[in-house]
Structure formats: structure tokens, C-alpha cells
Amino acid sequence: MPDQLLFGMEVVLNGLMAGVLYALVALGFVLIYKASGIFNYAQGVMALFAAMTLVGIMEGNVPFSHLINAVFGTQVHHFGWQVPGIAAVALTMIVMVALAWVVNQLIFRHLVNQAPIILFMATIGLAYFLEGFGDVMWGSDIKKLDVGLPQGLNTVIDDLTYGLFGYGFFIDNLDIVATVVAALLVGSLVVFAQYSKQGRAMRAVADDHQAALSVGVSLNFIWVMVWSLAGFVALVAGIMWGTKSGVQFSLSLIALKALPVLMLGGFTSIPGAIVGGLIIGVGEKLFEFSVGTMVGGATENWFAYVLALIFLVFRPQGLFGEKIIERV
Amino acid sequence: MLDASPTDETLLDVNNIEVIYNHVILVLKGVSLKVPKGGITALLGGNGAGKTTTLKAISNLLKSERGEVTKGTITYRGERVQDLLPSDLVKKGVVQVMEGRHCFEHLTVEENLLTGAYTRTASRGEIDADLNKVYDYFPRLKERRKSQAGYTSGGEQQMVAIGRALMSRPETILLDEPSMGLAPQLVEQIFNIVKSLNEAEGYTFLLAEQNTNVALRFAHYGYILESGRVVMDGLAADLRENPDVKEFYLGMSDEGRKSFRDVRSYRRRKRWLA
């Protein structure tokens, strides 16, 4: 097999893996958008916040230590214990649910029936608040996250492909884990939204707040549930990205990568988020590999957006989005 | 079959309520009405008279529109209900079918109906039985059970909205403007179903309607609202014969067109309920 083709296959595989990570972030957007019509600008920051909290808990750091030390003149930084990965993930999830509850109580409960732009503005405010809040709580330094996920070259695939083609594929173990986790996550979310009572109520709320209220659906409950789910997805995305590239401010910018994924897959479709993520992941890697070399590289920065623009023009609801129902 | 006529037992008692939107707009200026168990009570009046607001005040949907009941009381079975959440009220057996149908567009017809049973903890079998009952009343919905509600016709959507309310196993249904945007034949059909639900299943209805003619033919008792006040009430049969109602709401008059002076005299003759 020609080298070029083999290398192309490896690029596709790596693209798929990267796409899964984009999709994980996009999924959080879809959940909240589906249930409340809110485009949650804060989703990326939520992933950052979740990852920061996870690191903080694992390392036994005292939250708000800078603040506490400044006010009381103390010198506390660590509790002096380490929390194992799984327990820390569970604790972080509790924090994310609490965050969901607070966000709903303080902000979105009061914005029922408001225009989407107002809700969007509220999430922008939330994003910047949460970013600052995370820094105050855990410090703004770059943190290393390791919850014990396998990392590095997968030797099995390397050996196998080397044996087959005489060329070993470089696939990161972490990417494989991310793929499996994302697949499980999406599968269970789809089943939940389509077939469970709360999932159905979630979609009902998305269609019509007032009508959902009128049949006795509690908006508060559904919203806290959805923000918690989004918090969970953010946590998963935060773990994957944080493990890959460290927990730092730029983690919140992955949200920007999720935007074209959403435009492609459709804002309202859970499978769409995945397919959109995969197309963009593979597309940008292949494009960089084939065309990028001719135009001087760095196509990964804009390729996804151009693809998304094309979709917006020809298929505004995305690949799998709900058709915009308009009766005349 | 249950007795079609309303009983003496008052289920819902609205006593002199005042509703203000956004803290400044006074919409209801003292509305009182009673809904007897097993009856169809009609709330009549033109656009902006306060019919929808009255229903929403009862079902507690006002809060999400920044409205609030500032005076008066609303009781259901003698119990004060105006501070409850809409979901609590649904559990108590009061459910509203909103004006303009308000289906969940992207859910299928069947999913819409199932959402109606949200507050119930019944078994799947029980809920399926109720679903079939709704399909018996609205056979059209059974044919369209898998269609997205957003793509069904106006009449079908009204049926979905009523069927969805039935799925909560209510005692009282607040039905807001079921005739809106429907062809006369369909209006007749919907009202006939309401009537048979009332007679055969014993559901109590409070019905807000602009179409005075149809409403008074099907209702037992009627209240007429005008700019936030009840200006007249009586048995539906009596209201139908009332010369003022005939002229102003049914568009009939023995004496031909009245002059403006007579209109004013009608206004003076109105009975104001405090």
C-alpha cells in the first residue's frame, strides 16, 4: 500500500478521535438548547470549571484559599489529603449539580418566556462570571489533570498495523477512551430523551414552556435536570481535554470549536452533535493534510467555520436538526 | 350515564379577583364566578375582556407572564389555590387547555398525549388504557398518532390539546377559546365532544369563548365579561333570550339598528357585580 494512502488513513483515524472530543462539547450545547431554547455560551467555561474543580478536589486544595488567606491572614492551601480519581469525579459531579441548581434559581427561573437573545446574554454573563469564580476558587495557574485514564501510544494498534502494512499507526489511548465514553454518553442520552418520561418532558419544555407548565411539568425541575446533565457532559469533556492539554483558560475556548459542529449537526440533535463532530474532525485533518500543505498550513483554524457557513446557506437546520415547522 | 346537569356543589369559586400585569396594567377589576361540579360554565366576552386572564389566574399560569392576583381569592373545593404551582393544581384535578392550542410541535401526537400524564404516577398499563380512551373520543388522533403535532391541522391540534389535558385525569378542565381559527363544522364537532365528555364522563368545564352563540348552546351557565368585570350572568338558556345579549353578542335585534343613545342606556342597565 502506498505510504500516502496509509498516512491518509492515519489522519482520518486521528480526525475521528478529535471529532469525538468536539462532539463531547457540542453535546452540552444541544442538551440545554433542546430543553430550554437557550444557547448556552457558558458551556465551554463549564467544562473548564468542572476540570478545575476536579483537579482541586483530587489534590486536596482548599477552595478560595487566596481569598481566605487574604481576609484572615492565614496560610491555608491544602487539606493535606489526596482524593482518588473516581471519588473526585463523583464529588465534582455534585458540585456541577449544585451549580445547575444555583444557576436556575438565580438566573433562568426569572427569565421564563423571555426572548432568546435575553437568555443568550444571560449565559454570556454566566460564562464570564464562572470563569472568574473558578479562578478565585482554585487559582488561575495551569494544572495537570490525571484521573488515571490510559494515555500515550496504543501499542496494540501500532503493532497490528505495523504487521499488516509495515507502517504503525499512532493512535493515542486517551482518544480511544474518549471515543468509547462519548459513544456510551450519546447512546444513553438519546434513549433518555426519546423514551423516558423526563426526557419527553424535556422536549416538551423545549417546544412550549407555557404548555408544558399547563400540563403540570415543573420547569424548574426540568431545567435543573438539564443543566446538571450539561454539567455532567462538561465534566466529561473537561476530563478528556484537560488530560490531553492541561487545565487552563484555553480549555474554555473549545466551546468555539463546538459551534461549527452544531451548525453542521443541528442544534437540536444529539446524534447530530456526534456526526457533526466527526465530520469536522476528519474534514479539518484531511484538509490540512491535502490542501493545507499547498496554502501554507493552519487551515484547521478556519476550515470548520467555512464548512459550517456552507451548511448555513444550504441547510440551515443542519444535518439532523429538527425541521423548522412553519404552517401557512 | 351521569346526570348532564350541574350539581349544587361548587368546585371552583373565584371571588372578586383583581389581576395586574407587570405591576401596572390592571386587567381584571373584580371578577367573581362559581363553577359547579358537573357543569359547563361559559365565560363570554370580546377581545381583551379578560377571559384568558381569568383562566390563567385560576390555573396559576399568570406568574410566567408577569401577572399576579392582587386582590380576591380563588378556592377549589373550598381550599385556597392561588399560591400553588400549576403542577400542584394539575395534581388537584384542574388543568387548562390554552388558547391557540399550544401543542408540542416536535413531539408526535402520541407523545403529546403522554406528556399530559406527566404528573401521574400510574402504571404504564393504566396510562395506555387512558390513551385508548382519548383515541375513542378522537379517532382522528389515533390515525395520526405517529405524526409530529406541528404538522397536523388546526382541528387536530385542538383535539391533541384537549386529549392531552384529559390524560392528566382532571376533574375540571379550563378550556380557552376552543373555536379559535377553526371552521364552523369543526367548532361544532369539538363542542359536541366537550358536551359528551361532560355528560358521559362527568368532567366539569369552564369555557372561555368569543363565539357566544355556540358557547351558550352547549353551556349550562354563562358569565359575560367586559373590560375586566363580570357585567352579566345567568343560565345559558336565559342569556340566549336576553335582548342585550342578543343584540351585542349574538348580532340579532328585533328593532333593527339601535341608535348610540340606546347603546348608552344599555351600559347603564348593566348589572355590576362587585
Structure notes:
The complex is a heterodimer of chains A (328) and B (274). Chain A has 328 residues and is mostly helical. Helix content of chain A is 70%, strand content 0%. Chain A is built from 13 helices and no strands. In chain A, helix 1 (3-36) crosses helix 11. Chain A is globular. Chain B has a single domain, classed as 3-Layer(aba) Sandwich (Rossmann fold), CATH 3.40.50.300. The longest helix of chain B has 18 residues, at 184-201. Chain B has a 6-stranded mixed beta sheet, sandwiched between helices. Chain B has a 4-stranded antiparallel beta sheet with strand order 2-1-4-5, with helices on one face. Chain B has 11 helices and 10 strands. By secondary structure, chain B is α/β, with parallel strands linked by helices. The radius of gyration of chain B is 19 Å and the shape is globular. In chain B, strand 7 (172-176), helix 7 and strand 8 form a beta-alpha-beta unit. Classes of the chains: A mainly alpha (328), B alpha/beta (274). The interface between A and B is medium-sized, with 25 and 35 residues.
User: Which of globular, elongated, flat, extended, rod-shaped describes the shape of chain A?
Assistant: globular
Most extensive chain interface and residues per partner: A-B, 25 and 35 residues
Overall pLDDT level of chain B = 88
Structural class of chain A: mainly alpha
The Cα radius of gyration of chain B reads 19 Å
Largest β-sheet summary of chain A: none
Shape of chain B: globular
SSE pattern of chain A, N- to C-terminal: HHHHHHHHHHHHH
The count of DSSP E runs of length 2 or more, i.e. the number of strands of chain B, is 10
* Overall mean confidence score, pLDDT of chain A: 87
Radius of gyration of chain A: 21 Å
Fold-level CATH name of chain B: Rossmann fold
Write out the strand line-up for the largest beta sheet of chain B, numbering strands in chain order. Answer: 6-7-8-3-9-10
The number of helices of chain B is 11
CATH class of chain B: Alpha Beta
- Counted up, domains of chain B total 1
- Per CATH, which architecture of chain B? 3-Layer(aba) Sandwich
Any idea what the CATH superfamily of chain B is called? P-loop containing nucleotide triphosphate hydrolases
How many strands of chain A? 0
Oligomeric state, counting identical vs distinct chains: heterodimer
Strand content of chain A: under 5%
